[in-house]
Design a protein that fits this description.
The complex is a heterodimer of chains A (257) and B (302). In chain A, helix 7 crosses helix 8. Chain A is built from eight helices and nine strands. Chain A is an alpha/beta fold and 257 residues long. In chain A, strand 1 and strand 2 form a beta hairpin. Chain A is globular and about 50 Å long. Chain B is mainly alpha-helical. Chain B has two domains: 72 residues, no CATH class; 201 residues, MetI-like fold (Orthogonal Bundle), CATH 1.10.3720.10. The radius of gyration of chain B is 25 Å and the shape is elongated. Classes of the chains: A alpha/beta (257), B mainly alpha (302). At the A-B interface, strand 5 and helix 3 of A face helix 9 and helix 10 of B. Chain A: Keywords: ATP-binding, Nucleotide-binding, Transport. Chain A: It comes from Paracoccus benzoatiresistens.
């Protein structure tokens, strides 16, 4: 089944220096349960595409369907959870309180909220930190809390915009493992923006390589890697070959003009 | 005592260590004040001596400059005595009691502060949520503050008096005039602190504007609100005192200032000034305490 379908999507920003073509004729189909990474140099439109799916930007041409609806309908139906690069937790709410916020806004009952908070905090391994305030947690833990918040209302789609970009590599490795584990447990469709080749290769079932000016898709690579992926898989020939393909794709679309 | 001092010098007592610089500055101010008092009152003392054909020793000169009944600049101990006399030397219902005058000023200050804060917050909420208000209100608010309060105050008093309203309300209006502005500026800034990401997050949850306000904008603005409340309460006190001057008021610290200057009672002026300063400091500290309590309960104080 199709979770997200983009056909000839273009998005142009009108700026003081003239129009900027953030996306040009982007077509892509994402199936339910896929883990799709978007990779490319800055300005390639990967974040803009993710934001368009989330109805945080509106395409200027083409059609975009999320769970069979327009992106804005999907947003109103709370079809997706969004994780930003920064955790964006409210400092005046505890971790449990932060996870609870979207649930309160969406009108879940108190008992339901409690049960959901416990479940998602357990999923991201933060069960004993519900009563702590954000500043009492490390950056990696805060980002896990923000993932729990995005999972709490059981949206089928999880959109992640460089969620681990600000973290060091050791923490990042651990969170990548945890994210894969979480994806397997929940079966969600994940759209994941990154600029790290190993991260994209390690996590994804499909890798979308993009290039800038104008932002477009240059290559879509289906991963031959098995669903079971220990961290050591990164030293296997298959992994290295796949990483090479991605690198070639990036070089192809690269222009320094 | 000696033990405490010894520990203080050893640097083990943080209370004493932080008190030391404060005390040093205070002593320096008092010393400068005494010097200024001697210097400013000396001409008059010399003049008197010359008229009486007496020659003053410098010790006698200094003693006299610090004990004049109507000095140009009263010495610190004279002001302290005047303050003590005004606070503790009278029944608090007496018209000579600084407590009574202080209460008259305080009640109008608090009323004006309440009106000003409500107006400031209300306008800020409007400005943040309404484009038309955003573009139209701020210039007027700024304009209102560029008009000297000394020019506005008599008009307010006269207009209200013509309607038969005197006493607390007109003074409170003048206080509110001064105190709404810092609250307005602070709250507009505070309500706009949530960044694009936090607003996008709210948008992704399809949160209503009311939700956005109560769950995000208002809590984000609280540190800014408290900072501006401290400015606002001091401004409200100034506004009240200014409001007490023009009608030749008979009550309030402003009235004490005015009657002091009518009769050349400089000690009375300075006592009232200090009473006002102490009142302002106490009010600002009170808001600071409420701020700490609130932020701690919100989990924002570390």
């Amino acid at each position: 089944m199709t979770a997200i379908e983009a056909r000839d999507v273009s998005l142009t920003f009108q700026t003081a220096d003239g129009p900027v073509h953030a996306l040009k004729d982007v077509s892509l189909t994402i199936d339910r349960g896929d883990f799709v990474s978007f990779i490319g140099p800055s300005g390639c439109g990967k974040t803009t595409f993710l934001r368009a799916i989330a109805a945080l930007e509106t395409p200027t041409a083409g059609t975009l369907a999320v769970a069979g609806m327009t992106p804005d309908q999907a947003r109103r139906r709370r079809a997706y959870g969004y994780v930003f690069q920064a955790p964006g937790l409210y400092p005046w709410r505890t971790i449990a309180g932060n996870v609870s916020l979207p649930l309160e806004i969406m009108g879940f009952s108190r008992a339901d909220r409690m049960q959901r908070i416990a479940r998602v905090l357990d999923l991201v391994d933060l069960s004993s930190f519900g009563g702590k305030y954000p500043w009492q947690l490390s950056g990696g833990m805060q980002q896990r809390a923000s993932i729990a918040r995005a999972l709490a209302f059981d949206a089928d789609i999880l959109l992640m915009d460089e969620p681990f970009g600000a973290l060091d590599e050791i923490v990042r490795d651990r969170l990548n493992e945890a994210l894969l584990d979480l994806w397997k447990k929940t079966g969600k469709t994940i759209g994941f923006v990154t600029h790290s080749i190993p991260e994209a290769v390690y996590l994804s079932t499909r890798i979308v390589v993009m290039s800038p000016r104008p932002g477009r898709i240059t290559r879509v690579i289906d991963s031959p890697l098995p669903p079971e992926r220990p961290l050591e898989i990164r030293d296997t020939p298959e992994f290295i070959a796949l990483a090479q393909q991605v690198r070639e794709g990036l070089r192809e679309g690269h222009s320094y003009d | 005592m000696t033990e405490a001092v010894a520990r203080g010098h050893g640097g083990a007592n943080p209370g004493l260590r932080s008190a030391l610089p404060i005390l040093t500055v205070l002593l320096a101010i008092v010393a400068i004040w005494y010097l200024a008092a001697v210097w400013m009152n000396a001409p008059w003392v010399r003049d008197q001596a010359a008229r009486a054909d007496t020659v003053l020793t410098s010790g006698e000169l200094i003693r006299q400059t610090l004990t004049l009944e109507r000095p140009v600049l009263p010495a610190p101990h004279q002001v302290a005595a005047g303050l003590w006399e005004g606070v503790a030397g009278q029944k608090i219902t007496s018209k000579r009691s600084l407590v009574w005058h202080g209460w008259v000023t305080l009640s109008a200050t608090l009323a004006g502060f309440a009106i000003g804060t409500a107006a400031g917050i209300g306008l800020a909420v409007g400005i943040v949520h309404n484009r038309a208000m955003d573009q139209s209100v701020m210039p007027w608010a700024v304009a209102s503050q560029t008009v000297p309060i000394l020019a506005i105050a008599p008009m307010v008093i006269v207009v209200f008096a013509s309607m038969g309203i005197t006493g607390l309300l007109p003074k409170a209006i003048i206080a509110a005039w001064l105190s709404f502005f810092p609250v307005l500026v602070g709250m507009v800034k505070g309500l706009r602190t949530p960044d694009a990401m936090q607003l996008d997050l709210m948008h992704s949850w399809n949160a209503s504007r009311a939700r956005q306000f109560w769950n995000l904008r208002l809590p984000s603005s609280l540190p800014y609100l408290f900072a501006s409340l401290k400015v606002a309460i001091a401004a409200a006190l100034v506004g009240t005192i200014v409001g007490e001057l023009p009608a030749g008021a008979t009550a309030g610290l402003g009235a004490r200032l005015l009657s002091g200057s009518y009769y050349g009672q400089t000690v009375q002026i300075w006592s009232a000034l200090f009473a006002a300063a102490i009142l302002a400091a106490a009010l600002v500290m009170l808001i600071g305490a409420v701020e700490r309590l609130t932020l701690r309960r919100m989990g924002m104080a570390r």
